[in-house]
Each structure stands twice: as structure tokens, then as C-alpha cells.
Amino acid sequence: MRFDQYGGRDELYIADVDVPVPAPGQGRDFAGVVVGTGAELLGWTWERAGHAE
Questions:
Q1: How far is CA 21 from the centre of its chain?
Q2: 28, 50 in Cβ contact below 8 A?
């Protein structure tokens, strides 16, 4: 579901989008399944934390 401008429900539409590739230092996803991590991801924890330098 996407929108390109603010407004009501009529601004929402379904669109195909490319899967983003994580940049170095990125790798968290709070809203789904992690399918890739950035090159500089240092570790993983179930606790809320950030590990990129």
C-alpha cells in the first residue's frame, strides 16, 4: 500500500516496489522478517539495541 500525497483513503494504492538493499550499518526491521543485513552489522540481540558503528 502506498501514497504519494497526503489526503484521504482515495490517495492509497497498491504498487509493486523493489525490495530495498540494506546500506552499510543497517540491518534492523521492526515490522516483519529480516531478509538481509548491511555489510557492517556487528551482531544480533532480542533486546532493543543498535549495534552498527
A1: 9
A2: yes
Looking up cell 557492517 gives: 40
Show the cell assigned to 30: 521492526
Cα 30 to Cα 11, 27, 33, 37, 46: the distances in Å are: 25, 10, 8, 13, 11
| 28 and 42 Cβ atoms separated by less than 8 Å | no
pTM over 0.85: no
**Residues in the chain, pLDDT under 50:** none
Asked if residues 34 and 23 have their Cβ atoms less than 8 Å apart, the reply is no
Torsion angles phi and psi, residue 40, rounded to 5: -105, 20
